[in-house]
Amino acid sequence: MIDKNNLFHGSNLIVEYPEIRLHKFTKDFSWGFYCTNSNIQAEKFTKKYKTNKVINVYSLSYIDDLNVKIFNEPNEEWLDFIANCRKGNLHDYDIVEGPLADDVIWDYVSDYIEGKISKPAFMEFAKFRKPTHQISFHTVKALTRLKFERSYIYND
To answer: Does some domain include residue 152?
Structure first.
């Protein structure tokens, strides 16, 4: 599933040397450097920036020796994984790939975490959303396999 030739990262600057930065809030797959296989999705991520909307493009080299987790679709395992990561729990994967819990899906994830809806209810709500893609890099070893190819300015 991993497209090794075209991974995109939307930012407000050129990111030639990606880093893993810890933030106040964890993301879907915990702290990491996030990319997508969709340049359109990366462009949407830049909308939060008023200026300097930059799309960084990467290729990925040999990863067979890395600990990789791939979720092909939103399912119960994916939901539990995201819920655990969003609670601040860590995992031991170098790379995680799968659907993105966008703002609407995140509301459902939040409801699931808080016990307001069941897993089956979540899955029913989520199936009507078109899943988007994310791949996250969680270790320095994984980041060394990511090669910066180029960047371009996105003008919306």
So the answer is: no
Contacts of 116 (CB under 8 A, 6+ apart): none
Residue 154 resides in a domain:
no
| Residues contacting 144, CB < 8 A, separation 6+ | none
Q: List pLDDT tens digits, range 47-91.
A: 888 888 999 999 998 899 999 999 998 888 998 998 899 888 999
Torsion of CA 63, 67, 68, 69, to 10 degrees: 170
Mean pLDDT across 85-102? 90
Q: Which domain holds residue 90?
A: 13-39+63-142
In a domain, 148, yes or no: no
Return the closest-CA partner of residue 6 out of 31, 30, 41.
41
